[in-house]
């Protein structure tokens, strides 16, 4: 297995922090003094998502390149491994979102908008 590139951890930390603060924009309606000025610095936090797509593509290429070129892993096996890795997390959050939205519909007591749900997830 190839050695992990340690500088990725630092980059990931800062981009996760940047994205997390971007999601705090949901709390701008609370009326905290100075909140909008702080959030104006972080309104471009969605760029972190692009960074994670880029980083993910690089890591997958870095991990699988030799195996695919040397025919140690086939395309079907590669796709199966990627789906097996990603699908459980997707399914967990999909079910969680359904539970939150359906609870909102059944109880009618909780008012959730899309910004609140994006802050939860």
Features:
single chain, 0% strand, 2 domains
Description:
There is one protein chain. With 121 residues, the chain is mainly α. The protein folds into 2 domains: 1-70; 74-121. The protein has 5 helices and no strands. Helix 1 runs antiparallel to helix 3 (47-69). The longest helix is centred in the C-terminal third of the chain and has 33 residues, at 75-107. The two termini are 32 Å apart.
Question: How many DSSP-defined strands?
Answer: 0
Assembly annotation: single chain
What is the domain total for the residues? 2
Radius of gyration: 19 Å
> Count of helices?
5
Helix fraction, binned, reads: over 70%
**What is the average of the pLDDT values?**
76
What characterizes the major β-sheet? none
The dominant shape is flat
Secondary-structure element string: HHHHH
In terms of DSSP E residues, the strand content is: under 5%
**Secondary-structure content class:** mainly alpha
Distance between the termini: 32 Å
Spans of at least 5 consecutive residues with low confidence: none
């Amino acid at each position: 297995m190839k050695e992990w590139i340690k500088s990725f951890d630092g980059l990931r930390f800062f981009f996760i922090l940047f994205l997390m603060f971007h999601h705090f924009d949901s709390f701008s309606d609370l009326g905290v003094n100075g909140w909008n000025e702080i959030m104006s610095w972080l309104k471009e936090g969605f760029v972190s998502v692009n960074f994670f797509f880029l980083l993910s593509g690089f890591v997958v290429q870095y991990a699988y390149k030799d195996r695919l070129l040397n025919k140690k892993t086939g395309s079907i096996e590669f796709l199966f491994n990627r789906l097996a890795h990603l699908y459980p997390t997707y399914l967990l959050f999909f079910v969680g979102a359904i539970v939150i939205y359906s609870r909102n519909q059944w109880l009618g007591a909780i008012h959730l908008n899309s910004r609140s749900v994006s802050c939860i997830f």
